[in-house]
Amino acid sequence: MTSAALAPQPPPAPAVKPLLHVDNAVKHFFAGVGASVKAVDGVSFDIYPGETLGLVGESGCGKSTLGRLVTQLLPVTSGHIVFDGVDLTSLRGEEMRQQRKQLQMIFQDPYASLDPRMTIGDIIAEPLVNFGLVRGKAKDRRVQELLRIVGLNPYFNNRYPHEFSGGQRQRIGVARALALNPKLIVCDEPISALDVSIQAQIINLLEDLQKEFKLTYLFIAHDLSVVRHISERVMVMYLGKIVEVAPSADIYNSQNHPYTKALLSSIPVPDPRVESQRRLVELSGEIPSPLNPPSGCRFHTRCPIAVAPGICSEQDPELEEKTPAHFAACHFSEQVATKI
């Protein structure tokens, strides 16, 4: 045996702990006696420091509700939201308020999310004032610095929101989210209300800010092509449940859930010749109501490979690892590539 073999070996590198751990989060909204809207129904996932996790799905699937649960703008019905080792669902009052410094949100509508009666300087400075961090000239300097960071004229701080375009307003929303130097920002469809050319600018801005300030994003969208560009991992949601999670490249090259494949087939290709040869995966029927979701797999009423009556309508599939780091909730995931 060589002396090298006898030498003490270094300890294994510690595993990276998730910045955010969501454990079986549930959010039901009361909708009358004996009825509730099951907006989020048993969702679990992790987000690691410095990454962007994309969350996609059709309108009404529960994406925005999940984002609000992460930031505790909505309380969970059950489950746990653990941020940086702290269970947010157990906090109240001032303890929760202090955690909000590290958790910020960029909202979908750049028109409704800014108070029209406040100047943009006051809007951006509001979180700083609320926490008593700066005042006077220091506050003005910080606001001007944030405006420069997001690509706006720092001397526009005395103007009102109606004097800005939609893209400029969203930059103001980004500046407000950055004011407290957060660790995690939930981006709730931040570009869906913007023109395509402006969308690209906001995406590039978010990527630059992530590198500069070591930010972590939960990026919510319904456009898979945008999510592919910005996200390291993609999480697909359907009717309150996560149906597939995988690294971005994997989920675009090989889908293990029929819903994901249908979503991807709906993305238009700008080349007419390529577009004419593509096959659209058409889903039958309408999205079921979250008041009364289907039994078993919630997607089985629209799934082209479902066995119903049978296991699909009777047994809710678990989110399982089908290939390394690629999870899906489907009884017949191995048939997605060949039968759809």
Could you explain the architecture of this structure?
With 340 residues, the protein is of the alpha/beta class. It is built from 13 helices and 12 strands. It has helices at 3-6, 63-70, 93-99, 120-130, 136-149, 166-178, 196-213, 224-230, 248-253, 258-265, 272-277, 311-314, 336-339, and strands at 20-30, 36-47, 52-56, 78-83, 86-87, 103-106, 184-188, 216-221, 233-238, 241-247, 320-323, 326-328. The strands form 2 sheets. The protein has an 8-stranded mixed sheet with strand order 6-7-8-3-9-10-12-11, sandwiched between helices. Strand 9 (233-238) and strand 10 form a beta hairpin. Helix 4 packs across helix 5 and helix 5 (136-149) crosses helix 6. The longest helix has 18 residues, at 196-213. It is globular. The model is unreliable at 1-8 (pLDDT under 50).
What does this entry show, briefly?
The chain contains 13 helices and twelve strands.
Describe the protein's topology:
Blueprint: H1 3-6, E1 20-30, E2 36-47, E3 52-56, H2 63-70, E4 78-83, E5 86-87, H3 93-99, E6 103-106, H4 120-130, H5 136-149, H6 166-178, E7 184-188, H7 196-213, E8 216-221, H8 224-230, E9 233-238, E10 241-247, H9 248-253, H10 258-265, H11 272-277, H12 311-314, E11 320-323, E12 326-328, H13 336-339
Parallel strand pairs: 3-8, 3-9, 6-7, 7-8
Antiparallel strand pairs: 1-2, 1-4, 4-5, 9-10, 10-12, 11-12
